[in-house]
Amino acid sequence: MSHLSNRLAAVSVAALLAAAPALAQESGVGRPGEPIVIDQFQTGDIWSNMNVVMPDETDHAASTATASGNAAAAMAVSGDVHGEANQENTGNVGAEARLEGGLAYGQASAVATAYGNSATSTTGDGNSHVRSSQTMGGDTTASVEMELLGGNTVSSSSTAIANAVSTHAEYGDNYAEHEQYAEGSVTATTDADLCCDGTSATFSTVAGGNAVTSTGETTTAIQNATQTTAPGVTLRGTTDLYMYEATNAVAATTVAGNSYALENRFGYTALGTEEDALTQTNEGEVDAQTYVTVGAWNGYAATSAYGVGNSALVSNYGSDTTLYADQTNTGDVSAQASFDGTSSSGGVATLNSTAIGNAATASLCNVCGDAVLSGTTRQVNSGNVYSSGTMTVPSSGGVIGSASAIGNSATYQSGSS
């Protein structure tokens, strides 16, 4: 479950970076030997607020708030991207989205996204060579509030990350080197109160100090980073959901001090090297909380809280893969999840609470049988790790609960599909 939470967080960060506007933003494409250099400095506070009040009945309703201190982008439909981004932000960044009112016959959604610094790079049929340096000194906050009668499909996303990078390349090289430093606190919250949904209700909360996601297809991917979260920093994510009646409801909170996810297909892939390992140091306090109360539910009801000090993930399909990582966590890590509800229709409730000091995963799908998975991981954890879960279910078709607390976790796995 922890690996799945990690992947979901990585996907959500990449998607949000691709769509996010910015206050201070530059973009471009460079040729080999002629890199684009973007220097950005932000000192004031950045704040975005969107409040949508629905009528008693409507087809669709959405509330979206986005705030970013510095944002840099280098993109090419085809061809090479060669860029360098240097970003420093000493101000606070916040985004608030609120949705209230009646009933939406289609979709009702609320999205709040806040980045202290963000950089993204994409190319197809070309090489990507990217370097970035990011420092966030202020606090980063995102909050979603939802109070409405309901909708056919209901969803919300609250994401706050101090420093975030996303890269993608196809049919070429995918080289990257990043340096990230977070010295401000990060908070993401979701507070949802509604009667009912028709087919699904999904609520996601993500908070992180430093995050890098990279994807590739038929590329040679060689990447590295130094990620540091300073002492005294608090990284907190909270999801609080109340529904009178729910159908297929999901509430998930993911909080990470430092995270790097590199996913590639068909091409040599390396995260860190033997001489220069990926270095992650978290000295902040990590806290993930998810609370769900439903009067009754149909189908499934899934509740999860995932907190990790440092996370490194590399996965590949069909080619040699390596992971060299050096992870140190000194901050406390906690995860708490609770579910209270009943189902007279035979619905199944699941709860997962996972807290990890350091987590490293290298995965290779070895379709040809001759690809090699290798590497070295060093993990040191001195922070306290807590995980707790509570389920109160008088009636249901099934109840599954899990709570895991792990100091250090390292997995290298290879196999055929």
The biggest sheet amounts to:
20 strands, parallel
Spans with pLDDT under 50 lasting ≥5 residues?
A: 1-32
Helicity level: under 10%
How confident overall, as mean pLDDT?
91
Strand content: over 45%
Count of spatially separate domains: 1
What does this 3D model show about the protein?
Helix content is 4%, strand content 76%. The chain is mostly beta strands and 417 residues long. It has one domain (2-415). It has a 20-stranded parallel β-sheet that branches. It is globular, with a radius of gyration of 21 Å.
Short description:
The chain has one helix at about 1-20; strands at about 25-30, 35-40, 45-55, 55-60, 60-75, 80-90, 95-125, 130-135, 140-180, 185-230, 235-265, 270, 280, 285-315, 320-330, 335-340, 350-365, 375-380, 385-390, 400-415. The protein is mainly β.
Chain-wise SSE layout:
Layout: H1 2-19, E1 24-28, E2 36-42, E3 46-53, E4 57-58, E5 61-76, E6 81-89, E7 93-124, E8 128-136, E9 140-182, E10 186-229, E11 234-263, E12 269-271, E13 278-282, E14 285-317, E15 321-329, E16 333-340, E17 348-365, E18 373-381, E19 385-392, E20 398-415
Parallel strand pairs: 1-5, 2-6, 3-7, 4-7, 5-7, 6-8, 7-9, 8-9, 9-10, 10-11, 10-12, 10-13, 11-14, 12-15, 13-15, 14-16, 14-17, 15-18, 16-19, 17-20
